[in-house]
Amino acid sequence: xxxxxxxxxxxxxxxxxxxxxxxxxxxxxxxxxxxxxxxxxxxxxxxxxxxxxxxxxxxxxxxxxxxxxxxxxxxxxxxxxxxxxxxxxxxxxxxxxxxxxxxxxxxxxxxxxxxxxxxxxxxxxxxxxxxxxxxxxxxxxxxxxxxxxxxxxxxxxxxxxxxxxxxxxxxxxxxxxxxxxxxxxxxxxxxxxxxxxxxxxxxxxxxxxxxxxxxxxxxxxxxxxxxxxxxxxxxxxxxxxxxxxxxxxxxxxxxxxxxxxxxxxxxxxxxxxxxxxxxxxxxxxxxxxxxxxxxxxxxxxxxxxxxxxxxxxxxxxxxxxxxxxxxxxxxxxxxxxxxxxxxxxxxxxxxxxxxxxxxxxxxxxxxxxxxxxxxxxxxxxxxxxxxxxxxxxxxxxxxxxxxxxxxxxxxxxxxxxxxxxxxxxxxxxxxxxxxxxxxxxxxxxxxxxxxxxxxxxxxxxxxxxxxxxxxxxxxxxxxxxxxxxxxxxxxxxxxxxxxxxxxxxxxxxxxxxxxxxxxxxxxxxxxxxxxxxxxxxxxxxxxxxxxxxxxxxxxxxxxxxxxxxx
Length: 566
Fold this sequence. Notes:
Elements: H1 2-18, E1 29-32, E2 37-40, H2 55-66, H3 75-82, H4 84-87, E3 93-96, E4 100-104, H5 105-124, E5 138-141, H6 156-167, H7 169-181, E6 185-188, H8 195-203, E7 207-208, E8 219-220, E9 222-225, E10 239-242, H9 245-252, E11 257-260, E12 264-270, H10 279-293, E13 299-303, H11 305-308, H12 312-320, H13 322-325, E14 329-332, H14 336-344, H15 349-361, E15 380-383, E16 390-392, E17 400-402, H16 406-415, E18 434-439, E19 442-447, E20 451-456, H17 465-480, E21 490-493, H18 498-506, H19 510-515, H20 537-546, E22 551-554
Parallel strand pairs: 4-5, 4-9, 5-6, 9-10, 12-13, 12-15, 13-14, 20-21, 20-22
Antiparallel strand pairs: 1-2, 3-11, 7-8, 16-17, 18-19
Enzyme class: lyase
Family: Belongs to the aconitase/IPM isomerase family.
Cofactor: [4Fe-4S] cluster
């Protein structure tokens, strides 16, 4: 820890002494129309290659031009990015300085501890410890600590939150100190929601400085986060991806990330989703296609007329699952729908007008029907009209199965050797086994394939009003027809933010979900990261005694064996 602090401290001192050189691209600095703000205009480079660059690469280019000091960021780096169509094929390293950092409480606590340790070291050396602060805005959202100990009752939310505070008193106390001790560090308290949804609804700037009255330097919002699903923000046209703790700390201290200039896979969407197909069906199909293509270490950029037919929540769903399909980003450019979303989520009209003015002037606004950028290799295509209802599993998020094929797929899987990603290696004779048990005075039975855990959870799906309202309507219709969820099934609802709870309540759809056992258990990751709490002992022992292959049905991102219910 101390050695790391020393190295960073030395680098920062070195940088301060060298980086006073004038920016060689000062000619690009100019006023932005009548907004009263300023920016580095990429068109002033006078380079025809700019027009052909993917939107996501233009974000890297703008950062290099604005931060060029011939020490950390050199003129040659700007040339390498402009020359992307060639340099992206040859493992070329470039520096990138993200505008901000987001952390969640699992990975963020060590970062705050390191900053506290650096202050201690500074004090020991006789310096002013108050000088040690993050140099870029940092937001830490507490969402990983809440567990679904209680479910299926109206007190679940309150009781789970009480337990969360009891278990994490020391951590929360430390973070609260950090929020007041450091400049540039905001802590979003527990119970607020999932980091990526809070990022979309509340933290994202889209263009940095756009919320200022006048005289600000405007530049594209970008970030790194210490959580793999940070990529969700790419759906709003903000470049962002997950990194490790040390990299995040370096960015917090104003250092550039060194990254390989990535290839960009173009993914053209056309048409619109048919009735009955959801964003979840779409993202599972995209994940399956992109896994086959192989996009590890690459950006994926979605474009084409189909994007205009997707709501912002649908785009965020696709961007969120980048880690599951292997890409560094799943990027959607900003268009009119993105601007509408900013207004819907409470950003001011002036801010949104500045965002639009900047992106249009900079050639970063998504114009449908304009000339398409150049992409790496063949362009992938998907007609949204071909999407059908599907699930993924049983052990990997990219093993897509159409709902119509599910019974057959599961039955075949029972006989398949367990070394297969589909197999459970159950003897033919054992496949029809039924285990009777009693639960709260009633008799029930379990067999292979019985559902024992059902969770509406995850930053991916609970942030999407389309699928959440769909779940509420389905619950209402099921309840009205007298259908019930067996009482031994552990059901829970953990929305990504309080907004979800509010609109379900307003639409009178929270009650039908509760009637089926889906009470809000907390605002956080919960079941999606294995914080599902225990199954009832009667159910657990029935499963173990009969050695049954039972199922969890969830709207989370990952279904690796042992993850959903360790």
